[in-house]
Every structure is written in C-alpha cells, then in structure tokens.
Write a structure and sequence with these properties.
This protein is mostly helical and about 150 residues long. It contains eight helices and no strands.
C-alpha cells in the first residue's frame, strides 16, 4: 500500500514507536522494504531514526534499522554516530543483527574514506571468527569495497 501511496509512509514510520512490539517489528520490516527503492522517504525522519537506532533493544527493530539508517544522507558526524551504533550491534546476541550491522557498516563506508579502513578490518575479523552468515556477508562486502 505504501509503495502505491507514499503519503502513508508517515503512518508506517509512526509504527516504529508503537507500544506494541509486533507493530514495531512489522512497521520496521515494511519500512525497510519500501525504502529499498524509495530511500528518500526516510530523510525527513533522520534525527528520529538515529535516536531510535541508539536506543533500540529488540533484535527485529535493530536489524531493520541497521540497513535503513545507512540509506540516509548523513553528515560526517551523523555517519560516525550511526557507525557507533552499528558497532554496538556487533555485540548483540542475534547473528542476524550482527550480519545486518556488517551490511550497514559497509554501506556507510562506501561514502566515507575515514570509516572505510575500520570497516574493512571489522569485515576481515568477521570472516575469521563470525558465524557462517557473517563470514559470507563479510566476504561479499569486502569485494564490494574492493578489499579482497
């Protein structure tokens, strides 16, 4: 529905702050899917998403934020803030959160030479000691960054 009528996106984003965990999870999933092709829809929510990213505790919300936030147009300071949150996500219990954090870090590193060296080292470490999913994702992201 949101893909057909982007005016509904505001309601979808409001769901990220719902008191109902199921609503938060579904809203995050839908927002992530919609913004794969329409990333500009996220931009008005930049400040809120950066805040939510640092506060989110639920794995379902974290893994969607890990790939949505790097889709934003971020200043250097905002990019470092997002990278800091993603680095914390690497300590999550969930392998999925860790894997998507690696993806998010790679996406941030695409546009920031200052972040890239650190992200390459994180990816190399994940290739050595991560879960199977983390190893596979890290190998692909190293190729993406031209660091194989």
């Amino acid at each position: 529905m949101v893909c057909k009528d982007s005016r509904l996106f505001a309601e979808l984003m409001a769901g990220l702050w719902s008191e109902d965990a199921l609503v938060r999870m579904r809203a995050a999933d839908a927002a992530e899917k919609v913004t794969r092709k329409n990333r500009e829809l996220l931009q008005p929510y930049k400040k809120e998403l950066l805040g939510l990213m640092s506060e989110a505790e639920e794995q379902e919300l974290r893994w969607h934020l890990a790939v949505m936030v790097p889709r934003l147009l971020l200043s250097g300071k905002e990019r470092r803030r997002a990278a800091s949150s993603l680095n914390k996500y690497l300590e999550d219990r969930s392998s999925i959160v860790k894997t998507f954090a690696l993806q998010g870090l790679t996406d941030l590193a695409q546009d920031d030479d200052g972040v890239r060296a650190e992200v390459v080292e994180i990816l190399r470490e994940a290739v050595r000691s991560g879960t199977a999913a983390m190893k596979a994702r890290s190998r692909k992201r190293l190729v993406q960054l031209g660091r194989v």
